[in-house]
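ARCHIVE RECORD
Type: protein–small molecule complex
Small molecule: S-adenosylmethionine
Source of inputs: curated submission
Record status: active
Notes field left blank by submitter.
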Amino acid sequence: MTDWQESIEFESIGPLRRFFKLAVFHPFANYLPAPIMRWLLKVTESELAAANWKDPGGWRSMVISYEGKPTQIADKILVGTGSVPTALRNRKKLGSALIAHLIEQVPADNAHVLCLGAGPGLIIIDALKSTDHPAHATLVDISDEAFEYGQSKAAEHGVSDRVKYIRGDVRDIQTILDEPPQVVKMIGICE
Ligand SMILES: C[S@@+](CC[C@H](N)C(=O)[O-])C[C@H]1O[C@@H](n2cnc3c(N)ncnc32)[C@H](O)[C@@H]1O
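STRUCTURE (tokenized, with ligand):
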């Protein structure tokens, strides 16, 4: 591991949480018939399930996992204990540290990062604030639903003048961009 990787504090699953997952969570999640599980998530008003049903693989469910502080009981279990939400939070840490590291390798005065399928752009916001190297980003998403939330987060972290949100289809990227990027981020859209 190199220095930039070693400094990342990944979330790990402790022995108690691991035991709870194996003894309770996994049998429950794997053997409970899907319609009952769906009903349970509905009656417990799971925000994570509702976001996934509305927009499978969309930005909102990722933000719920990233923030890790849901209010509903079902979400507390899913977001706190689930392997996927934990992995998403760790991927966000790894992604932002890697992008910050890549920005630092760019010989240009003001590195340009292009984020495809950016959602609110939380990974690039973390990357911009964690490096002293001057950089700015263009964030492209087919939906502008996440932009207001992203802009508020960028302002909160003092990078709002360094992010530009554009509504567009990544397949038309050649017609969208007005300056070539040195770093391209595709986390969350490739899969
Ligand atoms: C799973 S979210 C990922 C958000 C963010 N990159 C992250 O990792 O947190 C996928 C995003 O890709 C966007 N998207 C899907 N197809 C797209 C397309 N053809 N062009 C631009 N954005 C697209 C969706 O609107 C959504 O915001």
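CURATOR ANNOTATION: The mean pLDDT is 94.
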